[in-house]
Amino acid sequence: MAENTFHKLRDEIENGILKGEFEPGERLDEVQLATHFGVSRTPIREALMQLSAIGLVEIRPRRGAVVVDPGPERVFEMFEVMAELEGMAGALAARRHTNQDRSALLAAHKKCESAATSQDPDSYYYENEAFHLAIYAASHSGFLEEQCAALHRRLRPYRRLQLHVHNRMKTSLKEHGEIVEAILAGDAEAARSLLRIHIAVQGDRFSDLVSNLGKRTRPKSTTA
Amino acid sequence: MAENTFHKLRDEIENGILKGEFEPGERLDEVQLATHFGVSRTPIREALMQLSAIGLVEIRPRRGAVVVDPGPERVFEMFEVMAELEGMAGALAARRHTNQDRSALLAAHKKCESAATSQDPDSYYYENEAFHLAIYAASHSGFLEEQCAALHRRLRPYRRLQLHVHNRMKTSLKEHGEIVEAILAGDAEAARSLLRIHIAVQGDRFSDLVSNLGKRTRPKSTTA
DNA sequence: TCATCCTATCTTGTATACACAGTAGTTGAC
DNA sequence: GTCAACTACTGTGTATACAAGATAGGATGA
User: Fold this and answer.
1) CA–CA separation, B111 vs B154, rounded Å?
2) Which CATH number characterizes residue B43's domain?
3) More reliable by pLDDT, B90 or A157
4) Confidence check: pLDDT of B53 > 90
5) Is residue A223 part of a domain?
6) Predicted local distance difference test score (pLDDT) of residue A223
């Protein structure tokens, strides 16, 4: 541990963006953030630099940092790439998973099941994340795992919105079951295509997503 | 452009790392870099923050920044992911390419041909990069294009080493030809698998890569 | 009344200063 | 002679100060 101030600030601001406390397009005032966190501008700037490098904020010269607004097409493209990477992770996991991975996957799946039966979207959202992280880990490719986790993290807010679509939780859980089965059976191509379909935003889910993107920018009331 | 100092510094240091001026594992002294570039430590730190966010350097608290050394397995994993992403870009390009993309691809391919016939590895290296960027652009997925370009850039030094392997240039060019054909014919799955094979480091190429990784860390004489 | 220009203020970008942690070198003791 | 501890120094982390550009508001002219 023993992290530095700018590390904590980076996570803090990143979470703020992902949770929607800072809206897309919003300007991030350095002095304001500095006073808010009780630090000087220096570590704030360093945190913003890191966020700009991973594409969460954009720094325009002499004009400050703004929260990047990906827009519907870009979000769709991100899901497209996520589907491909997850498919790859699933395929590798099918070939390489150990007994430990097997237990982790089954345990994560079971927790998703509990969350789904108790009809708790927030809990399912959390356990779903753990489930996917377990797949990445089972791929035994450190780099792929990192890339997947990073993109997964970035897509969090949109995934969260999707879960509130009617019946999505139930469908999602059913797909999880098939995915686990394919991976544990060592069927790489089945795991790949099942995961692709699981992630991809196709058909109705696309219009659901676009519709939800509009809702994301809230009526300014919960800002404080 | 009117970029800021830290933008230029970031590119400068990044190029230094990719070109091997800074060796993997080497400590990046802030004061030394500052005096070298004739600036203060502030923009240097901001540049290092960005490089740490994209994984080129690692910042350990109170112990400064060091150039990340991926190690053979990690490099292999990066090529694995690159192969998948390029395959995806090729598949999308096959479906979505416009007449403009078509001309750009053919032009880039022709330039590779010229470089190959004149037996110029450096020139081929450059034109090869342009060729692959043309494929990314033809995918018409802005996010995928960015991801591919970033990873491609990061793998530059290793690709450069590979080109010096005997006959690689000729084989590479032949593969390019087949890839162009598949894309222009609209055969997505052919384009995908051809590109996967083109990028993947398999069989002999893996041992070539590992052997070249050793050469990269030079005999410490050119440090000054 | 509207548009344009000028000015004042606010914010970013860079430099510098100071505090604290880590590291290395030296000295002393076993 | 070797190991450990203490001290001095080097370098990072954060704050603050200063300079320069951008924006907004007001004033003047058409």
Assistant:
1) 23
2) 1.10.10.10
3) B90
4) yes
5) no
6) 31
Q: CB A80 to CB B50 under 8 A? A: no
Q: Given the structure tokens 């920018």, which residue do they identify?
A: A217
Q: With an 8 Å Cβ cutoff, is A142 touching chain B?
A: yes
Question: Which residue range(s) make up the domain with A174?
Answer: 71-216
* A76 & A32 share domain: no
Contacts of B51 in chain A (CB under 8 A): 53
What the block records as the tokens of A88 is 């790859």
* B171-191 residue pLDDT tens: 999 999 999 999 999 999 999
Residues 6+ apart with CB under 8 A from A155: A75, A78, A79, A82
Contacts of A88 in chain B (CB under 8 A): 81, 84
- Which of A69, A95, A118 lies at the terminal end of a domain, its last residue? A69
Looking at the structure, tell me whether residues B29 and B111 fall in a common domain: no
Residue A222 has pLDDT above 70, yes or no: no
Q: H helices of A140-187, where?
A: 142-154, 156-163, 168-184
Q: Which two tokens stand for residue B155?
A: 């793998």
Residue A190 is part of a domain; what is its CATH number?
1.20.120.530
**B88 in a structural domain:** yes
Q: How far apart are CA A176 and CA B83, in angstroms?
A: 26
Highest mean pLDDT among B31-45, B110-124, B193-207: B31-45
Of A25, A48, A69, which one is at a domain's C-terminal end?
A69
Total count of domains within chain A? 2
Q: Provide the pLDDT for residue A221.
A: 32
Contacts of B55 in chain A (CB under 8 A): 146
**Are the beta carbons of B4 and A45 separated by less than 8 Å?**
no
Give me the CA A6–C1' D13 separation in Å, rounded.
10
Task: Compute the mean pLDDT over every residue in chain A, rounded to the nearest whole number.
Answer: 91
Give pTM, 2 decimals: 0.91
- pLDDT tens digit string along A137-175? 999 999 999 999 999 999 998 888 787 788 888 999 999
Domain shared by B61 and B117, yes or no: no
Residues B144, B118 share a domain:
yes
Instruction: Kindly state whether residues A80 and A184 are assigned to the same domain.
Output: yes
Handedness of CA B94, B187, B193, B120 (dihedral sign): negative
Residues A53 and A113 placed together within one structural domain of the fold:
no
Q: Is the dihedral of CA A6, A21, A66, A35 positive or negative?
A: negative
Distance from residue A3 (CA) to nucleotide D4 (C1'), in Å? 30
Tell me, yes or no, if B143 comes closer than 8 A to chain A by beta carbon: yes
The C1' atom of C15 and the CA atom of B30 lie apart, in whole Å, by 14
Residues within a 7 A CB radius of strand C: A 2, 27-31, 41-42, 45, 59, 61-65; B 4-6, 39-43, 46, 61-63
Residue A222 lies in a domain: no
Q: Do residues A171 and A208 share a domain?
A: yes
What φ, ψ does residue B59 adopt, rounded to 5°?
-110, 110
Which of A52, A77, A141 lies closest to B80 in CB terms?
A141
